[in-house]
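From the shared-data thread, chain only:
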Amino acid sequence: MKQERYTYLEKLKWKEKIALGVFVLSVFSVIVLGVSSISKSNPTGAVIGAGGEAGVTQTGVSICSDSDEGKEYSLKGSVNYCDADGNCLKKIDSCSDSVLTEYYCKNNEYFYENHECSDYCDEGACLSVASDYKYRVGRGGSGGSGGGPVDGGSSVASPAIGETYDLGELNSENTLEISKTDQIIFDLNGVEYTLYLQDFSQTEATIIGAGSDTGFVVNEDNRLDLNNDGTSDFYLKVRRISTASGKVKLTLNLV
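Structure, as tokens:
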């Protein structure tokens, strides 16, 4: 009787062990199936490029994006590239003397071209120097047919006028250096506009006649609507400010 009871207890323990084993195996199977399902539903992985941009790359596929959308020599751009293994990098247009290294994308791969600038290369872009401007004396601040400064109404109220740079019809990029109280005159679609450099600091230039916002930060691209038609038609960039020489380098162009 005692031997039969021992055999019964032993069988009961074996049943409990078998039940526990089946339970553990079931849990493991559920976990494996869940991981497999997630992998199948998400074949892509998120990656972070060198510039901090989030991109998505598929296994075996490379991706490439260009901020200036191709070979745009007059704009400083950058390329963000991720290879088929998800390794990412960022390449930025740069200058070496008058040679521009221009990065661009083709067929989701990145390439570069060494381009000789016609005038000079500065901060990753080819610039055209405004060397053929006309100098006019005693123009004052009134804006001729344009009715004054760009923000359109009254003439530029300035205590003194330094040099005046007349660019004529603005139909191409112009880069020039001006000092405090200098002014720039140009025509756009038959209307004459005047920009006046009122003041500057190490990081910002105050320009009257360039719309309601007159503070322009160094190396910031500004696209402005001069004729208030709701469309940007004028590009202005403060490229460099030298407090030592008292000069502000500006680039002006059509959008």
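The helical segments are 2-41.
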